[in-house]
Amino acid sequence: MKQNKYDVVCAGVALADLIIKGFDPNPVSKGRFLSESATLNVGGEALNEAVTAARLGLRTGILCFLGDDSVGQIIEKALWDNGVDTAPAVRPEGMGTPITAMFVDESGDRKSIMSGSHKYNFHPELHMDVLSETKAVTLGSLFRAPFCEPDAVKRFLMRAKENGVLTFADTKLPNFWDLTLSDMKEVLPLIDYIFPNEDEARHYTGETDPEREADVFLSYGVKNVIVKLGSKGCLFRNESEKMFIPAFKIDAVDATGAGDNFLSGFIKGTLSGRTHGESLRIASACGAMCARHVGAINGAKSMEEVERFISSTELSQP
């Protein structure tokens, strides 16, 4: 029997986040402002997912764009230090690494400013050999670059399915390209698990009830839908199962990357043979542990830590 090199390959964006917390919009002098703190953190959907997956004990690779600059070097070192194999990454010369400035308010909600590097034309579908070496693959940002061209996404996912790879797709609201579910109608049946948050689910389905939102995704052929509801928990739906999983009670500091950590926790449970309910509990714990800290990869450090969190932390009331 073939032995895969990876349990999961995380495909998408790796970048640096400049996280500004407690920004005061009132200038202290002309052109000068203060904030409570400012930290530079590595991030991006693929990186967040990959680091968390590796910490949870999965053999993890990353398929991303790494710029030919000092920020790219910082990101690659962070990946190595956390046990992520960067061999699948693409490294074109003379291109800068994407950087995002994120303003985080006291509730943990955030607004971001992206550099033009986010529009670089990185095409994962041109680097698909890694899909023959893994059990699972994640798409960190369906509807956004690099997964914003339906034909290209279809090619990528078809190769994954040809290799018997489980497909997990997080979603994002559109930014540079205005895409709909209909635009992705040939892509969605190739997705085993999709993870919209409540804002994304509402945007793409036009519904406001999570169960109806999930039904719309299912009607497009997605096998399993997880609607992330933040502090309210999450809803799971497929053709035969429906369940609501409450969130853990925490004091949220920064929601950056919580959804990416959630996805990796779910993959860990799924590849470990856990039930959907058990996998969702692991996912919820990983998301909550991330939200207790500033930065997207400062949450769970090991599966043992996640299990301790689950056993010791109270659930919120529905």
Key attributes of the depicted protein:
24% strand, alpha/beta, 8 helices, 4-stranded mixed sheet, 8-stranded mixed sheet, single chain, 318 residues, 14 strands, globular
Distance between the termini: 45 Å
- Class based on secondary structure composition and strand pairing: alpha/beta
What do the pLDDT scores average to? 91
Shape: globular
How many H/I helical runs?
8
| Neighbour order of strands in the largest sheet | 6-1-9-10-11-12-13-14
- Based on CA atoms alone, the radius of gyration comes out at 19 Å
Helix content: 25-40%
Low-confidence stretches: none
User: DSSP strand (E) fraction?
Assistant: 15-25%
Largest sheet: 8 strands, mixed
Order of helices and strands, N to C?
EEEEEHEHEEEHEEHHEEEHHH
State the total count of DSSP E strands.
14
